[in-house]
Design goal:
Elements (H helix, E strand, L loop, with lengths): L1 H34 L13 E4 L5 H12 L3 E6 L7 H7 L6 E5 L5 H14 L9 E4 L14 H29 L2 E5 L12 H21 L5 E5 L13 H14 L2 H21 L9 H12 L6 E2 L4 H12 L2 H9 L1
Parallel strand pairs: 1-2, 1-4, 2-3, 4-5, 5-6, 6-7
Bound molecules: NADP nicotinamide-adenine-dinucleotide phosphate (NAP).
C-alpha cells in the first residue's frame, strides 16, 4: 500500500514537473514575442479592408484617416452620416474609393446588418472576407450609483457593450473567412474601477470579458482578438465637454428621488459636478499611442492581447489595482 502511494506521489510529481517545465518554456517564448514589437509591412493598396465604428470624431475619425493613408480600404461607420456630421463630410472629402463612410448606429440591428451588406457589395472578393473590425463607438457618463438612473445604465451599455457584441456577431462570418482581426476599444476603466464611473466601468469590464471569450474561441480558427485600453485622452476627443456635463448633471438632479436629494444635498452634488468639469481639459492631447496600438493589432503577425496606451501615472495605477490585493490597492489609491 505504502509502495503504491510512494509510486503515485513520485509519478504525480514527475508529471507536475513536466507541466511546470512546459509552462516555463511557453512563458519564455511569450515574453520573447512580447518584447519585440514588429509591424508587418502595410497592406498592398486596397488589399485589406477594415470596418471602424464611431468615426464621426475622436479616435475613430483619426484612425479612419490613418489606416486609409496606410493602404487599407476603410469602411468608416458613422453615427451621424445621415445628419451630415462635419467629421463624416471631412472623410468623404478624401474622395477615395478606399474610404467608404457608412451610416451606422451600433444600437440598431438593422443599421448594423445594412452596413455588413454595404461591405459585402464593396469588397473586391466577399468570399475572401473582411480583414478587420475595430469596435470603437462609445459614449461615457459619470455619476455615483445613487445618482445614476437605470435608464442611464442601460443607455451606456446599449452602445459600449451590446453595440460591440452586435457588430462583432454581424461581422464574424466575414472576419473568419479572412482569418482576420477584431480590435475592441475598451479603457483603463475596463480593468480598474473608479468612484462615480460605474455606468461606464461596467460596460468596459464587459467588453474585456467578451473579448477574452471571443479570443479563446477564435484562436483555432485563425482570427486574432485584441483589446486596446486607452488611459485619459479626454482633451483630445469629444467624449466629454462642459456642455455635455452640464446637460447630464441637470437631468441627473431633476430625476433624483427626493430621499437621495435630501440625504446628499445640492452642495455635495454640485461639488461632484465641478470636479467632473475639471476633467474636460485633462489627459493627453496626442492620440498617436492609441492609433499606433490599433494599427499594430491589425497588422502585426503576433498582435498583443492587451494594449495600454496611457501615461505612466495611469499605467502604474492599473498595475497596482490589477496585481495587488484589493486591501492594499484600496489604501494606496481609493481611501
Ligand atoms: N477619450 C478617452 O479618454 C478614452 C479613454 C478610454 C477609452 N475611450 C474609448 O474610446 C472610444 C472612442 O471614444 P473617443 O474618446 O474617441 O470619443 P468620441 O470623440 O466621443 O468618439 C466616440 C464616437 O462614437 C460615436 N458614437 C456614439 N454613439 C454611437 C452609436 N450608438 N453608434 C455608433 N457610433 C456612436 C460618436 O458619435 P458622435 O460624435 O456623433 O456622438 C463618436 O464619433 C470609446 O469606446 C471610448 O469609450 C476613450
Amino acid at each position: 500500500m505504502l509502495a503504491a502511494r510512494t509510486y503515485f506521489n513520485i509519478r504525480t510529481r514527475t508529471l507536475q514537473n513536466r507541466n511546470h517545465t512546459r509552462v516555463l518554456q511557453k512563458l519564455s517564448s511569450v515574453l520573447n514575442a512580447a518584447t519585440n514589437r514588429s509591424y508587418a509591412s502595410p497592406p498592398e493598396r486596397g488589399n485589406k479592408a477594415v470596418l471602424i465604428t464611431g468615426c464621426d470624431s475622436g479616435f475613430g475619425f483619426s484612425l479612419a484617416k490613418n489606416l486609409h493613408s496606410k493602404g487599407f480600404t476603410v469602411f468608416a461607420g458613422c453615427l451621424l452620416k445621415d445628419k451630415g456630421h462635419a467629421g463624416v463630410k471631412e472623410l468623404d472629402q478624401i474622395k477615395s474609393d478606399r474610404m467608404i463612410t457608412v451610416q451606422l448606429n451600433v444600437v440598431k440591428q438593422e443599421e448594423v446588418e445594412k452596413a455588413v451588406e454595404i461591405i459585402k457589395e464593396n469588397l473586391k472578393d466577399p468570399e475572401k472576407g473582411l480583414w478587420g473590425l475595430v469596435n470603437n463607438a462609445g459614449i461615457s457618463t459619470f455619476g455615483e450609483v445613487e445618482f445614476t438612473s437605470m435608464e442611464t445604465y442601460k443607455e451606456v451599455a446599449d452602445v459600449n457593450l451590446w453595440g460591440t457584441v452586435r457588430t462583432t456577431k454581424a461581422c464574424l462570418p466575414l472576419i473568419r473567412r479572412a482569418k482576420g482581426r477584431v480590435v475592441n476599444i475598451s479603457s483603463m476603466l475596463g480593468r480598474m474601477a473608479n468612484p462615480a464611473r460605474s455606468p461606464y466601468c461596467i460596460t468596459k469590464f464587459g467588453v474585456e470579458a467578451f473579448s477574452d471569450c471571443l479570443r479563446y474561441e477564435m484562436h483555432p480558427l485563425g482570427v486574432k482578438v485584441s483589446v486596446v485600453e486607452p488611459g485619459n485622452f479626454i482633451v483630445a476627443t469629444d467624449l466629454y465637454s462642459p456642455e455635455k456635463i452640464k446637460a447630464i448633471a441637470e437631468k441627473m438632479w431633476n430625476d433624483l428621488p427626493e430621499i437621495v436629494k435630501n440625504d446628499y444635498g445640492r452642495k455635495y452634488f454640485d461639488e461632484k459636478i465641478a470636479r467632473m468639469n475639471t476633467y474636460c481639459n485633462s489627459g493627453s492631447a496626442d492620440t498617436a499611442p492609441v492609433i499606433n496600438d490599433v494599427t499594430h493589432a491589425l497588422t502585426a503577425a503576433t498582435p498583443y492581447t492587451r494594449y495600454n496606451p496611457m501615461d505612466y501615472y495611469w499605467w502604474l495605477r492599473m498595475q497596482v489595482m490589477t496585481h495587488l490585493p484589493g486591501a492594499i490597492s484600496d489604501k494606496i489609491y481609493i481611501h
